[in-house]
Amino acid sequence: MSNPLRDMEKPDVIFCIGTNMTECHPVAATRLKKAIRNGAKMIVADPRHIGLSDMADINLQLRVGSDAALLLGMAHVIQREGLVDAGFIADRTAEAEAFLEHVKEFTPEWASEICGVDPALIEEAALLYGRAERGAIYYTLGITEHICGVDNVQSLCNLALMTGNIGREGTGINPMRGQNNIQGAGDVGAIPNNYPGFQPVTDPANQAKFAKAWGREVDLELGITKVRALEQAGDQIRAMLIDGENTLVTDPDRKHCEHALKSLDFLVVCDLFLTETAALADVVFPASGFGETDGTQTNTERRVQRLRKAVPPAGESKPDWWIVSQLAQRMGFKGFEYDSAKEVFNELCSLSGTYAGLNWDRIEFGEYQWPVPEDGHPGTPRLHEDSFINGRGIFKMIRYRDPAETIDDDYPVWLTTGRRLESYHSRTQTGRSSGIDYLLPEELLEVHPDDVSAWGIRDGGWVNMSSRRGSVRIRVKATKRSPRGTVFCSFSFNDVPVNVLTGSGYDPVTETAELKVCTVKIEVETETGGVAAD
Amino acid sequence: MTRTNEELISQAKGQEAPLLPLLHQFHERDGYLSEEALRAISAGLRIPLADLFGTVTFYHHFAREPGGQAAARVCTGPVCKMHGADALLTSMPGATGMPCSGRCDEPIPVLRGNQTWVGLAADALERRDTPVPPAAPAGTTECVFAHIRDENRKSLSGYRRSGGYAALEKAVTSMTADELIAVVDASGLAGRGGAGFPTGRKLRAVQEAGGGPKTVVCNADEGEPGCFKDRALMDHDPHAVLEGMALACVATGAPRAFLYLRYEYPETDTLLARAISQAEEAGILGDDVFGSGRTIRIHLRRGAGAYICGEETSLLNSLEGKHPFPRNRPPYPVTHGYEDTPTAVNNVETLASLPPIVLHGADWYRSLGMGEHAGTKVISLSGDIARPGNYEVPLGLPLATLIDDWAGGPRNGNKIQAVTMAGLSGGFLAGDDMDVTLDEPSIRAKGSFLGAGGIMVFDETRDMVAVAHQAMEFFAHESCGKCFPCRIGTQRLTERLAGDAGPGELSSWLDEMADLNATMKATSACGLGMAAPLITESLVRYFPEEVRAHVSGS
Amino acid sequence: MSDKSGLTLFLDGEEVPFTRGESIFQVSERHEKEIPTLCYDDRLDAFGGCRLCVVELEGARNPVASCTTKAEAGMRVTTRSGKLEMHRRVLLELVVSENREVDVDELSGYASQEMATLVDRYEARTGRFEGRQSGASRPDDPNPFILRDYDNCISCYRCVRVCAEQEGDYAISIMGRGFDTQITTEFGGILKESACTFCGQCIQTCPTGALGDIKALRHKEIELPIEKTRSICIYCGVGCSVDIMTKGDKIVGILPAMDGPANEGALCVKGQFAFDFVHHPDRLKTPFVRDDQGELVPATWDDALDKAAAGLMAAVNEHGRHSLYAIASGRAPNEAGFMMQKLVRAGLGTSYIDNCSRA
Ligand SMILES: Cc1cc2nc3c(=O)[nH]c(=O)nc-3n(C[C@H](O)[C@H](O)[C@H](O)COP(=O)(O)O)c2cc1C
Ligand code: SF4
Ligand code: SF4
Ligand code: SF4
Ligand code: FES
Q1: Interval A237-288: pLDDT, tens
Q2: Hey, are the CB atoms on C197 and A221 less than 8 Å from each other?
Q3: Of C145, C197, C347, the CB nearest to A421
Q4: What's the mean per-residue pLDDT of chain A?
Q5: Is A203 near chain C, with CB under 8 Å?
Q6: A 19-38 residues with CB < 8 A to C
Q7: C304 touches chain A (CB under 8 A)
Q8: The model's pTM
């Protein structure tokens, strides 16, 4: 996030797009609710009528995967109505002229054709955001998990740049990071393009720096993404080490994924439980988890905080860092002799510009948000206050692209997936915590009541839902939260492995999977005698 | 033709203070407030459903079972009890009780849907007009009652015939707000709703407060047991009240005013609605008051049965559709009232005094009082008295004069044992302490207060512990539940007066009573909790023997 | 608190500075006056219900509630006097009289001891003011998280206010009035059928244990002291601070950290209640290796590490260093991710690493 969580109480106009915040980041959503209580207005763009929609002043219920068109339409209105922040554009941005010319083409009427939102509503939303004193954008995977995820993010940046809604309290472009430490995973360099602290591996200076630290030169070439690695499994990739991820269930296109993991020569998995993925491994290490180990994690607002051990680890389980460092030693690698998480973290700080001013003791109370470039630096709650890291904010000329799959006669229904408040990912943890079942006993496919009758299915009845990649059996729940023609379910339940269906495409830049859109057909389940199954 | 949910809701959405009217429309259309209705209103007005539900349950009269709206409600206030309200209630299947409903001069009122019936037996109930105030003794000059007995005074033409709306016309055409406030200030008029705050000062505070639009509220909740004066004023002189409200608007610069009327006065509701529209049609109210270009819109809002909604901040919450707890003060309504705008909340009688004061001047009004006391006060006199009714007395008039000379003395020639003051809120006066004059200093010296001017008379045949119990039951029933001393204290006092709980030994009983009284008076969050212990305090003071008998018998 | 405005008032005779907008209570807190409260939660708008916080203010006829009264220059405030203490004691005797019990287990919730502590401080277990008890418990609500034992409710409405003001869910409200007020959902139903998200905020602010943490209370019988360890929730990216409650080697419950920088006392159902997977029997307790029959069988750390190292190195040796790929977790701590990337970089000189941010 460009801005701290605390800022979420400060905007006068909130624009939430592709984020089901009340379910996925409930505590962050409480701050938005406070802003609303204090008079802020909210625009919500989502294919479904989500919890946030209930509180919104303007609801833009767009077709799945059409975000870029909607955002172009809004940019058009902001340009046309002269709501651009000329001063900000002149001082802080580049390519503005071309961009403002570019958006003239994309009228709300044009956008409406694609995204299905009434042009008048698009206008209204654009005016509201365009006139905001402090406009803040929040988004999640509903924006990124598309083949055009990067375009979508860029389109949001364009809106913020043209209206100067960045670098101030209560503004910004704020991705809500999904997992507890997904921010940290990037920060520490567990990505194919950067060393810790987002230092590109392609820069020879960085290569030299890390060679000095670690006694080994790392390729100047980028590594490959997980998506590629899974594609090349059994080919170029022969062995994998997976820490704490149930790849098989949470990744798209489960069949493909299972095939990939099975074609490895050797698979090592660390986890708390024998997950579906761990069950395929040659060696499984028991990791210790929440409450059992010391460590650090970094939240969505870049705040580095300490995890602490409260009870002895289960059985012989060990902290992940210990397991990996022991393994490295046995693989014959040098420099893996650590006694504590503290040592590991302090090494990370010594090598990362963003964490340079931190060390284990300094983050005792979690008051720092990176970058903390040196000792004594107070941290950076808000990014881009005076300037952008790379100089100017550059407008990008985005055009709308269709999703990898669009509905047709064979697969006439849009499926979009997501999470639910009460369960987390593949439920390895929430599913094993007592009581959660009371709230969420099973996965249900949310279908608009009109579709339920039109498709000849029954509320509470079983259906088969299939895509070009596979099919699952699931029970139907009629609800107006789903728009007509679009259905929704989460990927949390192993008996409804929705990711058997997904995986139609990837963003060409980030190779993020298009988990938010795929096309399906829905048929009354016949094998088990249809609705009698329950 | 019955209107759909959507029609009702979309119409309400465009209005000021839409919740109460909308609830009433559903209540009347369906005969109760159904779950479905509340869901629709919650979605339509964007009020969280649980909040809306909680708020609806706060009001005594909102029925949540089919048929509940029309079911009979019998007044079981202290005076009606003297007249056999309990027996009447049991004789009417399906009827429920309601607290004093402002008809103590002509009991017993029974509410059926939107109709008031009165009578002492189920088969003798009739619909009757609110009694006209008895004529004042010769030689007295009245202020608010001066024309109330005039023929046709209720109608706009009748009102104008005897000088009605001349004060408003004068104010909008030839007076500045400052001049207007100066007259009110100089008149010495103080609030007639209970607290007695100087009216001129209140108007000035609102006028000078920053922010807007400003708001005037006429407090016609008249929930105090033994008070029925505002009803008489509104029923027989509605335009005087409206004119007073309009004058307050001119003084403060408010373009809008609300009249918050208690639920139990349905006929008054109809009458006021008609009066407002007549005045608007005549260009007296509305967007161009007397051609001055000034806007004054009066919105009529009906309560739903909650004494606490007469407390001004609770009233404001009620208007706004919130849970009607009193607010914490400061800030006061004069700066943060209706929707946080500067707001003058004034009683019906206070406002009705404004037109004559503006017309006849401050000195005239001051001179109506006796001695150093300025002006008049309407006293609602009821109970064991020969001629109950509303009497507009000069402030400073001896209580004995009112009782004996004006109202014909005690009923049946019995001896008077005690009177209440300020309805029930002032507790009892008895014995020599009944030797007071009707003005605040005199009555406050006895530990009580005149307040809104309700006086109930109890003769020697009455069981004062039982009367105190009824009074406390009322306060417990009406305690809003916000603050601990009142919420629990009124309950404990009621139980003790009923003999249901409490120490059996007199000194412990009295200790508990003294501690409760002291803590409630000192720490309650609003006037209700502070006033309730005056009942027990005065009971123990004036009737120690009765109390001893009560405790030892229980 | 520094103050540039130079505003001061007199607190028990001592001149003290304050900042505009502060309540008398807040100023008194800073000066450790220990004014008792029951309806106060510093995250919520001051409500003024319990009246325990009343103080004497020179010039005011009655004591004023210090929580709702703003400090003003020159005020003369007395926070403790014989009269005030008498009123406070009476108020506490009153709340004792309306409840079934005063003492509740500490596992009930964060603020659950507030009332009992004050009752003891004021020696208010006198049995005076006995009479009918208020509040009706809801044993019919089958939810496994939130105990609704309103027999012990004192109508402070902290739960209602926290649900509205902090959580923004407006799931509960106040039914009826006076002594008969009752905490309720819409139409008096069970929580699951209301707007409740089971965030647990109401439990944690309840000063009497009327609302209690059912999951934590399961461990009430373990006769060991409760210890608390500050950590961070491991579900979403908000990073809420929690205090893990343990008895011996067992995690018995979670408390939100009121001073947690990301959450300031808030949590959601997962952070609050989904903790006991830690002790689930399915936990892996030893390493496993695949045996000759292709079965995963328990192994010692030595064996497993050797076997894993050998297996991974075999691929590297045969197919080159770009044949090993590491997938780090967005769920594991920074140290885990750091070690994973160091393994491929320092060990093999590649950047063949990714994490789960792409799916
Ligand atoms: C419990 C309680 C009930 C009250 N009820 C009424 C009422 O019914 N009518 C009224 O005018 N004032 C009532 N008041 C007084 C109002 O709060 C307020 O002081 C009054 O409306 C101001 O108008 P005034 O200055 O013209 O008297 C009540 C006060 C309390 C504490
Ligand atoms: S004194 Fe009684 S009526 Fe007034 S706020 Fe307290 S509980 Fe409510
Ligand atoms: S658990 Fe949370 S949402 Fe539910 S009632 Fe309590 S505070 Fe409200
Ligand atoms: S349940 Fe607890 S927090 Fe809620 S009102 Fe009762 S005592 Fe207060
Ligand atoms: S803390 Fe002030 S009244 Fe409760």
Answers
A1: 999 999 998 888 777 788 888 999 999 999 999 999 999 999 999 999 999 9
A2: no
A3: C197
A4: 90
A5: no
A6: 22, 24-30, 32-34, 36-37
A7: yes
A8: 0.94
Going edge to edge, which strands form the sheet with A135-139? A58-60, A41-45, A13-17, A135-139, A172-175
- For chain A, percent of residues with pLDDT exceeding 70: 97
pLDDT tens-digit map of A26-63: 999 999 999 999 899 999 999 999 999 999 999 999 99
pLDDT digits (tens, 9 = 90+) for B401-418: 999 999 999 998 899 999
At A491 the pLDDT is 80
**CA B375 to mean position of chain CA atoms:** 20
Parse chain A into domains and list their residue ranges: 5-176, 182-351, 413-524
**B357 and B485 share one domain:** no
Contact C331 A5 (CB under 8 A): no
Mean pLDDT, range B343-349, rounded to an integer: 98
- Are the beta carbons of A315 and C283 separated by less than 8 Å? yes
From the CA of C152, how far away is ligand 3's center (Å)?
Answer: 18
Across the interface, whether the CB atoms of C285 and A286 are under 8 A apart is answered yes
Provide the token pair at B244. 């007073």
Within 10 A of A1 (CB to CB), how many other CB atoms are there? 26
Domain A182-351 belongs in CATH node 3.20.10.10: no
Structural element, H or E, at residue C309: helix C301-319
CA separation (Å) from B275 to B37, B258, B285, B383? Answer: 31, 14, 10, 32
A133-153 tens-digit pLDDT = 999 999 988 788 877 888 899
Mean predicted confidence (pLDDT) in A316-328? 97
Q: Is residue B129 part of a domain?
A: no
Q: Is the pLDDT at A530 greater than 50, yes or no?
A: no
What is the residue-wise DSSP string for A93-143? EESHHHHHHHGGG--HHHHHHHH---HHHHHHHHHHHHT-SSEEEEE-HHH
Query: Which CATH number applies to A5-176: 3.40.228.10, 3.60.10.10, 3.40.50.1820, 3.40.640.10?
Result: 3.40.228.10
Dist. CA C302–CA A327, nearest whole Å: 10
Report the SS3 class of residue C350.
Answer: coil
Report which bound ligand comes closest to the CA of B328. 2
Q: Is residue B147 part of a domain?
A: no
Task: Please tell me the total count of domains within chain B.
Answer: 5
How crowded is residue C6: how many other Cβ atoms within 10 Å of its Cβ?
Answer: 7
Q: How far off is chain A from C306, nearest CA to CA, in Å?
A: 7
Domains of chain C with CATH codes: 8-80 (3.10.20.740), 221-283 (2.20.25.90), 288-355 (no CATH)
Pick out chain C residues at pLDDT < 50: 1-3
Q: Do residues B218 and B272 make contact, with C-beta atoms less than 8 angstroms apart? A: no
Q: Which range marks the domain in which residue B430 is found? A: 369-459
Residues with CB under 6 A from ligand 4: C 153-159, 183, 205-208, 210-211
Chain C (127-146) residues lying within 8 Å, Cβ to Cβ, of chain A = 142-145
Is the shortest distance between the CB of B20 and ligand 2 below 6 Å? no
How high is the mean pLDDT of chain B?
A: 97
**A25, A33, A328 member nearest C238 (Cβ):** A25
Residue position matching structure tokens 């943060």: B336
Cα dist. A229→A146, A152, A239, C323 in Å?
19, 25, 10, 9
B163 and B283 in a common domain: yes
Q: Is the CB of B480 under 6 A from ligand 2?
A: yes
The average pLDDT across A422-433 equals: 77
Domain end call among B459, B479, B500: B459
Q: Hey, are the CB atoms on C286 and A428 less than 8 Å from each other?
A: no
Last residue of a domain, one of B345, B366, B387: B366
- From the CA of C27, how many Å to the nearest CA of chain A? 24
Instruction: Among the bound ligands, name the one nearest to the CA of residue C50.
Output: 5
The average pLDDT across A399-419 equals 89
Is the domain covering A413-524 a CATH 2.40.40.20 domain?
A: yes
Q: Which chains touch A (3 or more CB pairs under 8 A)?
A: C
Residue with tokens 């939810």: C143
Q: Which atom of ligand 2 is nearest to the CA of B484?
A: 7
